[in-house]
Give the backbone structure.
Amino acid sequence: MKNIKALLAVFLLSLAFSAMAQVDFKYYPYELKLKHAFNLATMSRTTTPGVQVEITVDSVTGYGEASMPPYLGESVESVTAFLERIDPERLSNPFALEEIHAYMDSLAPGNRAAKAAVDIALHDLTGKLMGQPWYAIYGLDGERTPCTSFTISNDTPEELAKKIKESEPYSIIKVKMGVPGDRELIETIRRHTDKPICVDVNQGWKSREEALDNINWLASRNVIFVEQPMDKTDIEGHKWLKERSPIPIVADEAVQTSADIPALAEAYDGINIKLMKSGGLHEAYKMAVLAKALGLKVMIGCMTETSCAVSAAAQLAPMAEWVDLDGNLLIANDLFDGMTIAPDGRVTLTPTPGIGISKK
């Protein structure tokens, strides 16, 4: 019943905005400063480029964000160039999300982080206009959320000790593997805690045999799943691995939008949905529904982001078996207050209308 009422509110408000409304569309670069170096299988970085977006319609402002880790192939320049092409008048009915996405796709293919920034701002705006957080609009129970993992990447012994200390409030640890010394990293963590670990390989293992050997070793050390163990294009290799793995295999780089999901259903046990890959909440929700229909588990993840994009993704947390929503916890210059983490590590959604944020 709540979901029906929310949909009716969307319809009525959409009619109210069918006449042209005044739109103020702003965007500006904002570089995210990491608390510690972020070390992956192929690179290391201490900052993440980003672009902040603000869309104001009839004095109500929605906030959005694009975060561009290098592997996405987007940059501040490409995002800004895309946003410059948007006609603000095409955003005057912020409830017309399908139409707006079709319009953005007509401007250029890809550019999903840029499109996600607009999409997130529109969701924030429309939720505020309806006076409801988006998890409630979706008809989800905001109290049925998983615990988030907290990411630890390999580092010097001194920095690694700091990261392990920072992970103490969280009930699940996420470890980046596929780099030299990754087994030693697991053993180091195991000397400090027996908390469940999930592993993200970022395509770092080069063969199915190497992957299976590592997974069997990890399974004996309370690792609960492995994310993107091999090259994203190796569907047959992941099918082989899934048949033999004692723990679930989750797709990350291999899945961007809902169009990718059917081909992956036999190769993976679950998918990692991220707003910067999908182009925003509009597509991410479709992905979660389709994944469930195909028997796949759902993980809601994030990039290095402020609480803006992380809180937007958290609106889908009640649909997920796993969440990795710590991107805002890893930066030193967050612009927003938003979703929080309970003492047991559980994602806590605020009833704040929109995507659940307030600007600091």
